[in-house]
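Q: Mind making up any chain with C-alpha cells?
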Amino acid sequence: MLHELLTFVVDTITGLFASFLLLRFWMQVLRVRPPAPLAQAIFQLTDWLVHPIRRLVPGFKGYDWASLIATFLVALVAMLVDFWVLAQFPVQAILIMALFRVVQWVLYGLMALLVLEAIFSWVNPSAPFAPLIRAMNEPLLNPIRKILPSLGGLDFSPLLALLLLQVVHRVLSASLPALLML
C-alpha cells in the first residue's frame, strides 16, 4: 500500500513536470507563441533544469534537445524512486522503463491536445488558447486530413488520430515485457 501511494505521488508530480517540458519542446519545434501567462509559467517551472543541460547540449536545427533530455531525466528519477522502493536496481530495466515513460508521456500529451481541440471547437472556437492548440495539433492532423477528407463538413481526423495514438500506446505496452527480458 505504501509503495502504491509513493508511486502515485511520484508519477503524478513527474508526469505534470514532464508535460511542461514536452510542451516547451513542442512549442519551440512548431515555433508557436503561447499567450504570455502560459509561456511565462512554462519557462519559470522548467528553466531550472533546462538551462544547465542547455550549456552542455545546445539546441540544434531548431530543436530544444535540453528539454527532451530533461524529460528523460525526470522519467529516470521516477523509475529510480520506484525501483528503490522495491529494492531492485536492474540498470537496463530502469533505462528501458524511463524511455517507455517518456514515450508514454508524449502519447498522452498528444491525446490531451486532440481532446482540447475538440472541446474548443464545440464550446468556444475563438477562445484565446484555441489557435495555440490548433497549431500544436496541425503536424499530427495534416497527414490524416490528406487521406481522410472532411465528410459532410465534419472533420474526423482528430478522432482517427486519437485512435491511432491509442493503438501505438497499446502496441508499446504489450511489447514492454519483451523489451525488459532483453
The longest helix spans residues 91-123.
